[in-house]
Amino acid sequence: MEMACDYLVIGSGLAGQLFALKVADHGRVLILTKDILRESNSRYAQGGVAAVWDDKDRFEDHIQDTLVAGAGLCRRQAVDHVVRSGPERIQELIELGVIFDRREDKPEEHELHQEGGHSTRRILHARDQTGAEIIRALSEAVRSHPNIEIREHQCVVDLITEAWLCRRGGPLPSYPDRVVGAYVLDEPEQKVCAISAKVVALCAGGAGQVYRFTSNPRVATGDGIAMAWRAGARIGNMEFVQFHPTTLYNPGKGSFLVSEALRGEGGTLLNAKGERFMSRYDERLELAPRDIVARAIDAELKRRGDDCVFLDMTHHSQGFLVDHFPAIYAHCLKAGHDMAKVPIPVVPACHYFCGGVKTDLKGESSLRNLFVVGESSCTGLHGANRLASNSLLEAAVYAHAAAAEAITRENDALPELPAWDPGPAVPADELVVIKHNWAEIQQFMWDYVGIVRTTRRLKRARHRVALVKEEIRSYYWETLLTPELVELRNLADVA
């Protein structure tokens, strides 16, 4: 079965939905999402979106803060582009219906938070559920647009390029190589179909599930990065993984992000002895960039042999905490911690991939007509470490730039795509292979490729991942596809 559209959007976070809205007046748009439309990394962004919004703030300061957080390894053009475009893109989100919090004393002004690495207050937010508010507004707009079709529970298997078709006996590819569609596993129908498109927007999010401990949702399995790499797109900066310093320590119950904004509101980090320790690691204390705070906590835990450290917010009243951080307060209370009375137990966890598919300032990859936006991309904005709340900003700016370029692309005739060939594959009879290899990847990545790395541990990890990939490879071609098998293959490639 083959389908066709003008714009194929893979992923339904801020990047994917905003791109879809911007191209929808110029052709038929098809959004594919592994889960439901609103489920994405974007939805779980708590803190907010950074932008030069206050009259006392300056573009130069936001640029400098970004460069410092990125350890000087940012792409300066990308930083300038994102920061200077920020206010216009934020205003556009407001016009689309996003409601950011306003000051109680001056309702005509937006309330601004400060987070680690920022030299001033410039974070617009919707309590501690900013991502959910943005996705709410975008989803309503996307669902109401007549040119946008949404298909949920669709797992993209691989991108289709002209070079790949050529290897199967097709015509020589144009130069540069062009993406012409994708193979997609329809989970409800349990069928793989080919979808052709003049433009593919890869907005598939991050890869946090490659690690045992992560703040990311279950869907963040690195699909976009892995499939772009297999298609031949250039990848960059994959060594730069950001570990969020503070996720709730709740053994056996899963991770929960405790926002950067709490430290912005005066939260202090304590070890198990009750000592404030950040002064030993950075003069900015708790407001140092995330990578520094995460490494400091890691060092403190190893130095003392403790399981966690503690984030103290007890200097604020219960009313303030419930009003400003309702979701975090409720989640901590459910776990047995009233943050108005006792410090919150926290540990670092994998949070964000600064690397990904390399793109230009228009969001296009090294493969023609493949635009990559959001966490799957490597624009150069983040360098070695993302400045807090710059990710939603980057997604909005590059969704706009990518859409502006995509609508200029000519309607070249698309080649006919061959049907998916499962070969001699049979239904899976040993699902333990998926479960075991998934857990093994997460464990050795956490132990050997975590917050602090050594050459010896990296060599061990490389050996382990080679063995796992070979086991997955044979199982993949012998077994009919399931979403879990596709995700496992992608996790192994990312690792």
Gist of the model:
This protein has 495 residues and is an alpha/beta fold. The protein contains 14 helices and 17 strands.
Mean pLDDT across the residues is 93
The name of the CATH architecture of the largest domain is 3-Layer(bba) Sandwich
The portion of residues assigned to helices is: 25-40%
Number of domains: 3
Uncertain stretches of 5 or more adjacent residues: none
Report on the biggest sheet.
7 strands, mixed
Q: At the fourth CATH level, what is the homologous superfamily of the largest domain?
A: FAD/NAD(P)-binding domain
> Which fold name fills CATH's third level, the topology of the largest domain?
FAD/NAD(P)-binding domain
Radius of gyration: 22 Å
End-to-end gap: 33 Å
The coarse overall form would be globular
CATH top level class name of the largest domain: Alpha Beta
Strand content: 15-25%
Q: How many helical stretches?
A: 14
